[in-house]
Design goal:
mainly beta, 10 strands, 4-stranded antiparallel β-sheet, 6-stranded antiparallel β-sheet
Length: about 190
């Protein structure tokens, strides 16, 4: 019994030393889709921050191919439903607002949201989820939606690496966008109380 206890203790101790080094090795590895972040202030002090990972086109068909139209199929589907796209790579993309905002005219409280999208040929659904810490969209749950909006994508020059940005800066509003391959997906954000 003593030997079994010693063996168990040694095994547990070994795991405690090995697991952090495996995790650390994963974190120190260069990712194929590098992490990025973009921030824009609108109004007096409303900050918008988007954190994401940047996959490349790499000669692939993106829209209707790598990123299918409609709900993207996942490894395991929730209640028989496929998942929305995580709007980037690796961990799900997040968007954070330091103050309440209006997104396409709809009120959204200050906070950090998971950003998901359902691409379509003519319209896209953009989802702001209260769950902002998922890996990808495999654990996405529609019950966590804080807001869904529908926007129209626009053709754009080729962008090899997925990118988020802001344009049409108008003091108290801006147009945020996802730009990848030959499309831009814009959505307007305005301060709620100015």
């Amino acid at each position: 019994m003593k030997n079994l206890f010693r063996l168990s203790s040694l095994l547990i101790l070994s795991l405690l030393f090995i697991l952090p080094s495996v995790s650390s090795a994963q974190e120190n590895k260069v990712r194929l889709s590098l992490k990025a972040s973009v921030m824009q202030r609108i109004g007096v002090n409303t900050d918008i921050t988007i954190d994401y990972s940047r996959p490349g086109v790499k000669g692939r068909k993106i829209w209707g191919g790598l990123v299918p139209y409609g709900m993207a199929p996942g490894i395991k589907e929730s209640k028989g439903k496929p998942f929305p796209w995580r709007a980037g790579a690796n961990e799900n993309t997040t968007i954070q607002f330091s103050r309440d905002v209006l997104v396409e005219g709809h009120r959204l409280p200050a906070g950090k949201y998971g950003l998901f999208m359902i691409p379509g040929k003519k319209e896209w659904v953009i989802i702001f989820s209260k769950d902002n810490s998922a890996w990808g969209s495999f654990s996405y749950n529609e019950a966590d939606d804080a807001l869904r909006i529908t926007v129209k994508p626009v053709e754009a020059p080729h962008m090899e690496w997925l990118m988020y940005g802001f344009d049409h800066l108008a003091g108290t509003s801006a147009t945020a966008y996802l730009w990848w391959d030959n499309l831009k997906v814009p959505f307007t954000i305005a301060v709620a109380n100015e």
